[in-house]
Fold each of these.
Amino acid sequence: MRDTPRSYKLLIGEKWMDDAASTQVSDKYTGEIIGTVPVASRETVEKAVAAARAAFERYSMVPAHMRCSILEKTAALLEEHKDEIASLICREAGKAWKYSIGEVLRGIETIQFSAEEAKRIHGETIPMDASASGEGRMGFYLRRPVGVVAAITPFNFPLNLVLHKVGPALAAGNTVVLKPASATPLTAIRLGEILLQAGVPAGVFNVIVGPGDTVGEWLVTDRRVAKISFTGSPPVGESIVRKAGLKKVTMELGNNSGTIIEPDANLDEAVSRCVMSSFANSGQVCISLQRLYLHRAIAAEFTKRFLDATAKLKIGNPLDKDCDVGPMINEAEAIRAESWIKEAVAEGAKVLIGGKRDGRVLYPTVLADVRLDMKVMCNEAFAPLVSFYEYDSFEEAVRMVDDSPYGLQAGIYTNDIAKAFYAVEHINAGGIMVNDTSIFRVDHMPYGGNKMSGLGREGVRFAIEEMTNIKMVMIKP
Ligand code: NDP
């Protein structure tokens, strides 16, 4: 029997509010409606920003130890409700249970890191007498919260990517208006309940839901917003930067991640990591492995082992505990990815496994005989789709990984330290993972992209730097 969909509300100030229009949120595997959510009107967006702005005056004065306690309580509550929240992610995002619960556990760590960092926000002294004009003066700088942070988030990590904005913002004394992806707003609203329960003061955290091109735009163009922290696709990121005006911005955008497998690599380890990196969350991860460069000496052996492991993946309902690959976020996206595969095949590529689509489910797909100028190599696939490319020269492989409009993360498997150094020096990306794939991330490391992959860095301490202003103090006796 189906449950009655829960009716969710928007969090504005300390109030849970309805609005005139509403939208439905579905289970991405079964299609069942699991929640209805109000769509914020312009007036509601105004109220949310006003509530955040008013709350900033008080919250920015809350001492660090109290901000830390609120975040510690939030982590404890997330831990207490982890299975329930993982089920919500599983259903609204279509993410396999093992990755949904993994996301909640990571989210708890993100908030714990935020609690710790709340106590470490500080400036430094400046040797004023380094200039003759500064003699006899004392100087230091402080880091102060910027004000209202507008957080705009994508569908693929409805909890942890929200927490990467909310945790650092609250740790630093900022207030937040969050606009989650329209496909996955329920986890964000549930987080609002948890934050209130943890003692977050009224107005410090607000959630509004609605389409990016209306609700999102009203938020980013509001002059009371001091900082926009956006995670999503490059075209939307670029359009936000154009419209934002004089605001701080952090942009976490897409990638067409590459990883190199050298002949001296540990193949057992490389194969299992590469399979997970290509297909986890149906490849809908910004650092998903999309371009796999295989040295010709190990290409045949690697390919055989990779295909054997891929054939064993369990595809189906994300709520099943042993599911590896669930649906994509919607059928249009699955059709789009399938059309890229068909186009590559028409241009000479070969499907080694997969290539089949069943509604929203695209089966894990491996392509060989691809050309570097095919869409599956040049653009961000954001689908359970990986392309194999054989090479002879290591330097050439590094050049190909680097030859991308994106620059988020890349990986290289080698036990030769000189090759690892070469890759680190020659690939223009925010992160190079040696003996792992592009997908590696822990939540306190600096994370973000170069080129079309973005501006600025997340990773709790680094996000706090971007959410604070430096205030210089000079004292003359
Ligand atoms: P989108 O860019 O489509 O949407 C992201 C968010 O922006 C959503 O909340 C969306 O709202 C909102 N939005 C859309 N248009 C506007 C607008 N004009 N003004 C303001 N906000 C707007 O991304 P997806 O949700 O499809 O996520 C996939 C993308 O995110 C991929 O490119 C992926 O690589 C990237 N990503 C990057 C990460 C990183 O850390 N670098 C991590 C994860 C994903 P609505 O849902 O209503 O359209």
Amino acid sequence: MEQPLVILERQDRVALVTINRPEKLNALNTGVISALASLMEELNKDTYIRAIVLTGAGNKAFVAGADISEFSTFNAKEGYALAHQGQEQLFDRIALMDKPVIAAINGYALGGGLELAMACHFRYASTHAKMGLPEVTLGLIPGYGGTQRLPALVGSGLALEMMTSAQMIDADQAYAAGLVNKVVALDELVPAACAVGKKIAQNAPGAVAHALRAVRAGAGAQPGTPGYEVEKKAFSACFGTAEFTEGVGAFLAKRTPDF
Ligand code: COA
């Protein structure tokens, strides 16, 4: 029997959502994106649920990025549509939710995976987690809000270093930079995220929703503001270039790219 791409487990008023594609390190393909988007929509409307914890199946990855095999032949127009649809359908939807979504980063959070964690309201990580935006190794840039949310969270210096060097940071570095709020052992990660979710669930849900809205309004980078549009256009401009063909071709052929 085929496994569901997204698993929901209710722990009283906290919803635990697990992206379930461990054999591909939970890479975001269109199936995962649409299943996750529908579930988030449903949970946002569910008045019993007060907080959501989002994690990845297995002990290796939260999400290792957008599914590279799905966009390897895209041109600029298709690249723009990929970023636009993904931002609208999933990433902005999470960022605009009325209840906190907590990312429990249980391993690699790379590219679209880190962008997904950053669209959540805050993040906990396991000690072995690794985070990065390695898109330039593919001849691309982040397209799911990463150019906007990473500088807003850690400052432009570290964000630019991560985006241009493609180097990953570990959980302790992410904690020091304010990218994650807590670092715990892997087996304590989901319990710790659910525990804070349960604390949130004890508080006034309308007030919690207002707090989320107010913080969003004050934050420099919000969905719908010009930076996100600039990102989509710049992301789409990468498609069809020789760099893109080399970067993605090298990943799929399991060799080092030669730019
Ligand atoms: N898209 C599609 N498939 C992916 C993927 C992605 N972003 N990340 C991992 N996978 C797949 C691999 O192709 C492999 O599939 P296979 O077993 O059918 O060959 C499987 O997941 C396991 O990954 P593998 O590379 O063998 O694991 P590893 O431990 O050697 O390396 C990573 C782990 C995370 C370093 C490596 O998978 C990687 O670099 N992934 C891409 C990260 C990235 O560039 N993300 C941004 C995308 S925009």
